[in-house]
Write a structure and sequence with these properties.
146 residues; 6 helices; Ribose 5-phosphate Isomerase B, Chain: A; 16% strand; binds D-ribose; alpha/beta
Length: 146
């Protein structure tokens, strides 16, 4: 699977661990930074992953301290449905009901083991379609509100 990943400084350690895991699992991973633990602004990185997913498809993973700022940034980009998840259940629901295409995580919120489990659940779960499809269409239509 093609997966675009980024973090700010507060998500740097977890992001690097996830990149390593995802590559080891055979995924086609693009790491858009940050490339050091130096302080940076999360909207820059959320924007880059969101634009990549909107333009090229695949899925995105964003990590900051809480995941909140990254989810706000990514959801500003047309075509992106970013979900902040703290559990495997939320990750499965985000994919199966909301067709989320970007997963946001907080390094200061979830430990590395839970983060890995959340990412695996997110990647393994397909969109259910059916009654959820018209709801996602309505979500997408809100892109025009901006
Ligand atoms: C950085 O200190 C922190 O504000 C950022 O990583 C994130 O948690 C914002 O939502």
């Amino acid at each position: 699977m093609r997966i675009c990943v980024a973090s700010d400084h507060a998500g740097f350690t977890l992001k690097n661990e996830l990149v390593e895991d995802l590559r080891a699992a055979g995924h086609d991973v693009t790491d858009l930074g940050a490339h050091s633990a130096q302080s940076v602004d999360y909207p820059d990185f959320g924007r880059d992953v969101a634009r990549s997913v909107a333009a090229s498809g695949g899925l995105g993973v964003l990590v900051c301290g809480t995941g909140i700022g990254m989810s706000m940034a990514a959801n500003k980009v047309k075509g992106v449905r970013a979900a902040l998840c703290t559990s495997e259940f939320e990750a499965r629901m985000a994919r199966s009901h909301n067709d989320a295409n970007v997963l946001c995580l907080g390094q200061r919120v979830v430990g590395p083991g839970m983060a890995r489990a959340i990412v695996e659940a997110f990647l393994a779960t397909p969109f259910e379609g059916g009654r959820h499809a018209q709801r996602v269409e309505k979500l997408n239509a809100l892109d025009g509100e901006r």
